[in-house]
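FW: tagging you since you asked about this chain on Friday. Here's the raw sequence from the shared folder, copied in full. Didn't touch anything.
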Amino acid sequence: MGRIGTFINKLQAHPNAEYYIVYPRSVRNCAHGAVFMAQDEQGGDKLYFYGERCPFDGVKKTDGNTVFYECGLSHANAQVLRELFPFCAPQKVLTRPCTIGTGDRLGIAAAGQIGAIRKYAAAPVLAQQSMRELTLTGRTFQSVMDDVTFSVFREGYTGGYGADGDHLKTMEEIGEALACGYTMITLDLSEQIHDPAETRAPVCEELRECYLDRSFRLDDGYEIRFSEDELQTAVTIYGEAIDYAEQVARKFFSEADGQADLEISIDETSVPTTPQQHFFVANELRRRKVRFATIAPRFTGEFQKGIDYIGDINRFEQEMKIHAAIARTQGYKLSVHSGSDKFSIFPIVGKHTNGVFHLKTSGTSWLEAMKLAALQAPELYRQIHKYALTVFEQAKANYHVSAKTEAIPDVERVPDELLPRLFEDDNARQLIHITYGYILRHPVFGPMLRALWKKEQRRYDELVEYHITRHLEGLSVPYTGEENDEK
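HL: got it, structure written out here
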């Protein structure tokens, strides 16, 4: 490393050297000097620039004849990192076969997620937050991306990552995310999807001629046919949603080389998307020349937050074969939402998509953070657990879960060493999973947890890396090796 190596050695010989822990993967040369990330005297991460003209906002310091700059993890400095080192900026990644939306509600999970993903033939979407999550955590699209930028730089991850404005519903939300540089938008069409039991939409003659008395052949020998009733049901449920998706696409996604990919989300409904309905939505979007990269149907069974799949696995597999064939035939990627911890169906998803899919997780890294609290601060965890019980009914307004709080063991009767095993219980997992906003905003618990996670960051990284690795292995994503970042 030459002069920068000499400088790092000098910094680590500082009287407070135990605090100046350099992240070795972050050391990078750039114009007029070099930059790296290290912990400062308070144990927080900072950027350090060694050279003549510092491009970052920071404080000039001297050590003998050595001049260097200590720079905070600000938005302005995140922008400079993205300009100096393009791998720190998000990219469009959905053209790659396997992509995983990991998400991070805390701004500290990306390092562990990268630790897992860099070993496999998958591309991560590290910045992934919905408006609901932003509201509950008090974050913004920009702060989420900046947190990921610093993590990517710290870990020296050059494999490329995406940024997803997740489950956005309005033009204003989409515009805000794109203005921050997001490279993927998940368009949530739940408000334009209608219950056929409440209304029946008319079917125009053009659609009748297009779909009735025809057979649509799919990959792997499958075919799709429509009866009169099936066509009317598809038009009733998805007609308005398709119209709205077309409006959004024409406003934001009309250019082939545009900034971001579009994902179509039709999964936020109570009734599963049949193969005919999936084909209808995709085919109508294609007929209207809407550019989209993925579709997320509402699969059969239940994809509840933070727990395994609930439903008939055999039926899921039979329908997954057809859903995957529709996506291949139409030329886009199938997306599985609320995909964290669905270990029983991961082999099915990996097999029948031929490894070409997008899977979304998010809250599972939050659960690992709370498991760490149970491991390292059992009494604090007990107090938070009891508080979560008091706000659970309010939190359920935002999420569909089946947790029964009366089935959760009395946390006061659980010994310290067994507290982490609560995270093997579906009811306890969902309790903690959906109350994150209340816990993080609590004036006592929020700061105490963040102090704990800061102190135990290395252990947290290990927990997240192990957990995300379980997902990748379950999905049969090919192992590529520790240093294989360039994908």
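FW: The longest strand covers residues 123-130.
HL: agreed, and DSSP finds 17 helices and 15 strands in the chain.
FW: great, closing this out.
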